[in-house]
Design a protein that fits this description.
about 50% helix, 2 domains, single chain, alpha+beta, five-stranded mixed sheet
């Protein structure tokens, strides 16, 4: 009798084993990532070991989306984002609303992409440390180019410097529509005085145009130079930034007289500027 009971127990145990194995197999199949289990970690490890230089654009976007969309394959979604906007930087410059139009892009994912673009911009801003010498127009141009990158509306920056052209501050003093931004000269002057600046440059962007000054840009620059001169502050340049270029008005022969330290709007020689 005892022998039969033993055989019965062993049979029941063996019968139960496949069920336990099937249950484990089912759990493994349902585990987050499925057949892609470990893929995210491998991508992260590759990034930590190699950086992003060898990543294809869709792989960069795929990894970024890891942190906005957990427990889901983001490869196809990364392709969809790049197909829609054409490049990583265009995607990062896209609005939250436009990103959300892509099926599968959640609020968190759209916020993350927008944030990443702004973070990259902030990184370049912080690289241009306060205290650096803006020795020529190219230094000022590089500074403002990165600060205006990705702006969809016209913005105006005031670059404040001391008498050695040491950078004291770089402040946005105006933001307008996609086609215009009015400079409040009084506000700009107040900011320059607050920064204890003796020299300043202004910069603005043409989001949908060329880096070339309009007649309104020239006239505003003339008025601004005169207002600053009253406070013994010298306007050294006006930089105009387009999507992939910038120009210095001070280095444009026909406009250079505006930036002379003794420039006066009332001088007959300046009437044609």
């Amino acid at each position: 009798m005892a022998e039969k009971e033993k055989e019965t127990v062993e049979a029941e145990t063996k019968a139960a084993e496949p069920a336990a194995e099937d249950e484990t197999s089912e759990k493994r199949t349902k585990r987050p990532g499925g057949v892609h289990a470990g893929h995210r970690q491998r991508v992260k490890d590759r990034f930590l070991n190699e950086g992003l230089e060898k990543f294809d654009p869709h792989q960069v976007m795929e990894m970024l989306l890891f942190f906005g969309i957990p427990m889901k394959d983001t490869n196809e979604l990364a392709h969809a984002v790049l197909d829609e906007f054409g490049s990583i930087y265009k995607a990062m410059e896209a609005s939250f609303a436009d990103l959300r139009k892509i099926p599968g892009i959640t609020d968190n994912a759209a916020t993350l992409i927008c944030f990443s673009g702004q973070l990259a911009k902030r990184y370049w801003m912080d690289r241009c440390d306060i205290g650096k010498i803006m020795s020529d127009s190219s230094k000022i141009g590089e500074l403002v180019k990165y600060r205006l990158a990705g702006e969809r509306d016209e913005c105006v920056l005031l670059v404040s410097m001391d008498n050695r052209r040491k950078l004291l501050n770089c402040t946005r003093i105006a933001k307008g529509s996609v086609n215009s931004a009015d400079i409040n000269i009084r506000l700009a002057l107040r900011q320059a005085l607050q920064d204890n600046a003796t020299q300043v440059a202004i910069a603005h962007n043409h989001p949908n145009g060329h880096a070339y000054p309009s007649s309104a840009d020239i006239r505003t620059t003339q008025l601004f130079a005169k207002a600053l001169a009253v406070a013994d502050i010298h306007l050294v340049d006006h930089i105009i930034v387009s999507e992939d270029d910038y120009i210095s008005m001070a280095e444009t022969d026909s406009l250079a007289p505006i930036f002379k330290a003794n420039y006066s709007l009332s001088d007959p020689a300046n009437d044609d500027q």
